[in-house]
Amino acid sequence: MVVSPHKSMMPRESTRGRLRSHEACLNCRRKKTRCPAERPSCSNCLRLNQPCLYSPARRTSRGGQSEDRLASLEEKVNLILSGSRPVQGARPEKREELHDIPEVGYSKNSNPSSGDPSYDQISPGSGSVSLGFGNDDSNSQPSSATVSRGVELYFHYCNRQPIWCFDYEDLEDKGCLSDELVYSILALTARFSPKPWESQRYGSTARTLIMLRVANGTVDLETIESLCLLSYSSFIDGDVQLGRFHLGLAFQLCRSAMMDYESAYPSESPFTERKKRLFWSLQSLEQTYGQQNGFLSLPAEILRPFHGPPGAWQKDAESKLPPLPRDDIGCSTPTDIGIWSLALHFGWVWSRVRTYVSDCAQNRLKEPWRHDSMYAMVISDLTEVENKLSQCHRYDSVKFYERTADELRKNRAYWTPWLKLQFTYHCILTVLNHPFLYIVASQSNPNLSIPNAFWRRSSELVLLHATWLVRMIDMVSEKKMRLIDPFFGHAAAIAATVHLYYCCAVDPRLKQKSKIDFDKCRTFLKSFVPFSVACRILDQTLDKMTRIASGSEKVDYEWMPSRIHLSIPLMWDILQVNCTPESPETSTGGLLHPSLVPVISREEAGESSCTLEVIVAMSPEVTVNTADGGQAAHMQPQPRVSKINSAPSTPGSLALAEKLVAPADSLMMNTPWLWTGQFPDVESVDFQDTESSMGNVDGFSSWWDFGNL
């Protein structure tokens, strides 16, 4: 091969097998296409109507050799990666239908305490997953087929759940994707392939390429999208430090590009919608997984995704709020807010709840019944966001429970954000009214006297919405919907703590029902374990707390406690979704040296000083109605019995054979009174026999119909 003299001294890329052209414009170099190198604009850029830019003139050393810093650094990266090459031979392939990929669910009949739930796992080498990655050598670039399958897996499992960086047409031309975006997609989706261990290698390569972009000042939109994907992947893996690093770097790059200003989104740009989706996807991750306290934390009010009542914060923030992306799936009128954007609205309220829990954990609770408390402000924000929910998206309008599994699978782009919205709504009210928060607060502050009216109302709400979470879990199982976001597992763990709390109710019917709901939450959480380290740590935490509460290794149907012991450190771990491994060696990431890994002090969970003895002196009695397609409850309808048999009963005869009837004097046909061991005279209180004064309330709707969204 004849080489011109002025190119003979240029550095050769050992793994690409060709000489690097120093005349290519930045666009052609990014796309890895042949550049005609016309000045001032090449014909390729003129044809695509895009600005054509060239790298600045390079200095020449004394020996006459050109100093191409970018080429030199890329060559070093290739050597480090043992010969890996960028993806430049990939070609667009025909999109495959995913009807043969099974939706993984869980069985409501499985026994979570046995550790062997009867759900289909996505495991290495599983023959049930038809879209596995190709047999790539670990030291070679991913093949075209591997990239295509990774993109398909992304859209099947991860798109709009919760991140929404691009639509399918944005990735259709796979040969033009940047290297870091390809490796980031593979890092996120490898967990659903027969080779989940490849995720870490892909992620490491993607990080190297991203930092190379940053070092050379060639960051583009796909680079920030790659950080978004890597951040989500790290959160699924429970690597909070690495995930927040990726998220923080993406935010800083967005600020450098002024993407936090509305002026950065011109209507005539073809990338405007894609930039909107990226910016708000980052916000969605920040709401659920970001740092909620600390000096460097961003106040939630600054990125409020809607315009609430006028306040001081709006004077500086309103003018630069980026617009929400265009999302009309499932909307009935042009003025309706899209379901993904609505889920983002509720996610913002959830971020406020996370801050509230963090304040409670640090003993900074302001009396929640006060009008200026954070509890009252969060309820106000939630009501305002709920008021923005169009009728076309509401539970009674969409009738999720009537949809077929095939219909839900074909419209995952709508139903996964809809489920996220529903879970978030019920989880907000469950956590805000969780009795653990106020029991601990009253013990830590002897002068804090919680009014009976607040106890009554909050107890009604926590049981109401924890039961709704179980109902949503049941529907997801019945429809065989595969959910990936660890937030769903966290919601199940929170609901499980509430039902564990009610396992010591006086009423044996509620006690048995709470045990069944508790098992459902545990089994649903275990369905996330095969692909999410974060949910595996949550599951282990919940198992530890269950052993402490029951005093045994497993909770069976014979367990009918009158009091339980809740581990305070483990309860905070679940409510604050602390998924950090106890030892740095078990961390899945590689961001921090062990000397910098935050040390989380955990007291021994089995010590009596770290447990809370809980006694439920009187339990709620509720009416369960399974009309309207089973949307009201998850208990089978049975003839009403007027008297409870005191003899031991089987789970079926006790939990499912009786209708639970609400007391007539209840505010919401549900009046639980919840106390702890700190009140010594609670057992001597003479409660009225609610069953004798119940009256006929069969004409009322199911009690949790009031909590419907």
Automatic annotation (TrEMBL):
Keywords on record: DNA-binding, Metal-binding, Nucleus, Transcription, Transcription regulation
Chain residue ranges for the region called Disordered: 83-144
Polar residues composition-biased segments: 107-129
GO function terms (MF aspect): DNA binding; DNA-binding transcription factor activity, RNA polymerase II-specific; zinc ion binding
GO terms classed as biological process: DNA-templated transcription; positive regulation of metabolic process
Keyword Cell cycle appears in the UniProt entry: no
Domain of life: Eukaryota
SMART domains: GAL4 (SM00066)
Record localization: Nucleus
Pfam families for this protein: Fungal_trans, Zn_clus
Location of the Zn(2)-C6 fungal-type domain: 24-54
Ranges annotated as biased composition (Basic and acidic residues): 91-102
Coiled coil (residue ranges): none
CDD domains: fungal_TF_MHR, GAL4
Database matches in PANTHER family: ZN(II)2CYS6 TRANSCRIPTION FACTOR (EUROFUNG), ZN(II)2CYS6 TRANSCRIPTION FACTOR (EUROFUNG)-RELATED
Name assigned to this protein: Zn(2)-C6 fungal-type domain-containing protein
Species: Aspergillus avenaceus
